[in-house]
Each structure stands twice: as C-alpha cells, then as structure tokens.
Amino acid sequence: MTDLQKRSMPKLAALFAVAAATLAGCGKEPPAPAAAPAPAAQAPAPGPEPLKIAFAYVGPVGDGGWTFAHDNGRQALEREFGDRVSTSFVESVPESADAERVLRDLASQGNKLIFGTSFGYMEAMLKVAQDHREVRFEHATGYKTSENMRTYDGRTYEGAYMAGMIAGAMTRSNTLGVVGSVPIPEVLRNINSFTLGAQSVNPKIKTRVVWVNEWFSPPKETEAATTLIHGGADVLFQNTDSAAVLKTAQEKGKRALGWDSDMSAYGPDAHLASAVINWGPYYIRATRDALDGRWTTGQSWWGVKEGAIDIVSIAKDVPAETKARVEEVKKGLADGSFQIWKGPILGQNGKPVLEKDTVADDTFLGAINFYVKGVEGRVPGGDKK
C-alpha cells in the first residue's frame, strides 16, 4: 500500500462515520446489506403413471343385477387404490365379433389390465391376448387360460342354494319357477343348487324352468316369468341380469328372489331375499397383483368363504327357523364344514349322480349338464340323468 493510500483511509472512514450519524439523526437506518438470492425451488419428481384398467360389460350398468355388481367391484378397486389406477368400462358388449373389436380397442388405448365379464367373451379374449402379450386379461366364468389370460368366477351356486331354502319354506304350491338365461354349466349348477336348497326344507318341491337364451332381455324375462306363474309357480328365481322377474312377481302377487345384487327395491312386496355377488375382493386382489408385479395366470373361484357370495335383505315374513337354518349353512360354507354337493344326490331318472358321502370336486361342478331330481323338463342339448 502506498503512502497516499495510507493517508486517505482515515479520511474515508471519517466520511462514512459522518454519513451514518446523519442518517441516524434523520431517523433512518443505514441500508441493510442485500440478501443472498434464494435457491431456485426444484419441481417435485413426477409420480408413476396410474395403471389403466378396463372392463367389458355384457349388459348396461343400471342399478341392479350382474353388470351392476361388476361395476360395484370396479368402484371398490378405485376406492382401494386411488390415483394409482385409472379405470374405464364399455357396457352392453355383445357376445359376438363385437366383443373382439371392443377388447382390441381397449388394449390399443393403453389399458394393461382388462376384465371381460361374460362367458361368451372367452374365445375373443384368447385371440386378443395372443396379440397383446403386454396386457393382462381376466375372464369371468370361463375355463380357458393362456400366459397372459386367467379366469375368475364366483360360487353363485352357494347363493342359489340359500335362496332355495327360503323359497322352499315360503311356497304354498310346492312349485318353484326359474327363468334361465343360457344353458351352460354355471346356470345349470345354479338351478340344481336352488332346487337342492328348497328340497332340504321341503322335499315336495318341484322346479320348472323357462329359458330365454339371453343374459339380459327384460321383455323375454317378463314373458318367461308370466309363463311360470300361469304354470303354477308361486315363488320365482332367475339366472338373468335384469329385475324383470321380480317386477313381474310384484305385479301378479307372487314372491321372488333377487339375483347378483340386492333387488328388494324393485318389488318390496314380492321380494323374499337376494343372492348377491361381491366382485370387489377379487378385483382388488387382481389389481394388487398387477401393481406389485405378481400377476400370474391361473383360475380363481371364490364364494362365501372369500366374502364373494351372500344372501341379503331377507323378508320379515320368512320364518325365524328358516333364517336360522340359512345362517347355519352360510357359516358352514365359510368354514368348510358344509358341502352343498355331497351325495347322495339323484338325477332326474332317480339314479345317483353323486354316491352317498361323495363330495363333488370343482371338475364335476364345472361340467354339470343335467338336472337333479325334482327339476322338470330336459336340459337343452344336455344329458338326462
């Protein structure tokens, strides 16, 4: 430092002191040092894309029946997983070439998990699954699988059996009527189980069936129900998707049972109980498998034990003894101590289809093509045993 710089420093310091004193006298604070700029905020890292899930429904969602029950299951998985999933559905998809077109469209939209909710979609789903190995397909009520397609079903025959117990206790004519959809093993199993349940409380029971050969056709279901009533049936059951059967019973002063969902609102005077199916537990399980990378092909068949099947809204005039017996059967189905299909069970010709103490396995149940004793008529295209 030069002599000149050394001599200037005291003067500069004095000047700064005078300036500070002057500002203080004016009531002003000297300016504060400028604050350091804040670091730029970093944008949060984007989260994973939601799993896109799609459903193909055979009927309209409506507010009752098979498709309504499936859509309740879809909503249950949305509540369970929140923004980790994004779901959509297409309703009223025919069991025809249209099914393949819809399924291909859903796969092309980026859905990675696709549920097809009707038996008639099986072959179409197999073809589409072959061409979209990156997508996982789930087929309801079917029996064919592939590397990226598996099947699931509900043991609806358990609900049918409990409904039959109530029908058998409440009939006065000892004649029950069933509106059948399509004569496949699933439906025949339900008709037979309904009859076995009714006969467990009333051995005099006879069951009559009218087939409509469709899953959802309210006009045909109404016509079939009317035919059964004119034929002497005073309690009606169904394996169809609409509430037309219960409505018909209400209009004609008969009794009926709801199917797949609680249908009591459609015929409060006619309604005896509803055999319901809860798809939520399975849809949540399947979605979790996909999210966690644990999805594998296979077959699932869930019932009362897994919380998938129940009997609800039992009418007040059903005897307490019958309600207690139904509850006992429900508990037995849940813990495995009760078997619906345990011999001796007879076919229409009086010969055993299950010998005494023999319990049917799922292979037997999945291939039923006959009526048990007490069901009148012939199975369309089936065997008479």
Automatic annotation (TrEMBL):
Pfam families: Bmp. This is BMP family ABC transporter substrate-binding protein. Residues 1-19 form the signal peptide. Residues 52-316 form the ABC transporter substrate-binding protein PnrA-like domain. It comes from Verminephrobacter aporrectodeae subsp. tuberculatae. InterPro entries: ABC-Purine-Binding, PnrA-like. It comes from the Bacteria. Keywords: Signal.
